[in-house]
UniProtKB/TrEMBL annotation, chain A:
InterPro entries referenced in this protein's UniProt entry, alphabetically: Rap1a
Location of the Rap1a immunity protein domain: 28-118
Keyword Signal: yes
UniProt name for this protein: Rap1a immunity protein domain-containing protein
Domain of life: Bacteria
TrEMBL record, chain B:
InterPro entries per UniProt: Rap1a
Signal peptide region: 1-22
Domain annotation Rap1a immunity protein: ranges: 45-127
Entry keyword Signal: yes
Source species, domain of life: Bacteria
Record protein name field: Rap1a immunity protein domain-containing protein
UniProt keywords, alphabetically: Signal
Amino acid sequence: MKQLAALLLLAAVPAAAQPADNPVAMATGAHLQAICGNQEARDRRIICLSWLNGAAQGTGWFKPRDPAQTPAFCPPSLNFDLAAYRSIILAWLAKHPADLARPSIEVYSRALAAAYPCRKR
Amino acid sequence: MIRRLAPLALLLATAAAPPAMMDVAPAPAASPLLLNSADDARLVCGERVDVAKQLACVSWLNGAYQIATRYQSLSPQLFPDSCPPAGAAPLGRQRELLLAWLAANPGERVSPALLAYRKAMAAAFPCPPG
């Protein structure tokens, strides 16, 4: 698996020094689209769903430091569905191609906040 | 943290060769690749051969780390924040820290994997007071 070699190489390199064009870094919206949009390659499915799993496990336990960049989202249940999250993010990127250049965690937050807005108190 | 990980479970269930005889299909949630518990993290992130586990570990760490950089804990005692200096926490280093923390805290193996990760990172990279 070429993806493994690339990912393990990235694992040893500080995030700031990681090459911006390697989608396994999952650093941008374009990476999310390239990895999560490919359902044929098993290694990419693992990378996509595991990244989403790592990001989503703390849902409800954390708040955004900068809601303008990473808005809060309020899913109807913490019994979340990673495939649904993946579909929401891919659909968001299809409608917002400018977000391909955004950091992936911003895309993740913006897409899910649009799908699951929090009620204003 | 109740979670529904059917797609990941289904995907990862195909990673291992099936046993020669199996009367009952194993519950997908039992797969350590879901990284539900700290012990799952120990098994998956400690893997040195299985490619699927290595990919799952590093990608899971990547997602959890990116959240940690942009989100703040609402319950710092349970899920402490960490403040690694720039460039000090590549994913390989995070994996080492997590495994070392789990080895030093075997009683935490039944805890959620994310809790172990947050505590391991906070122990290595505590945030300044205030």
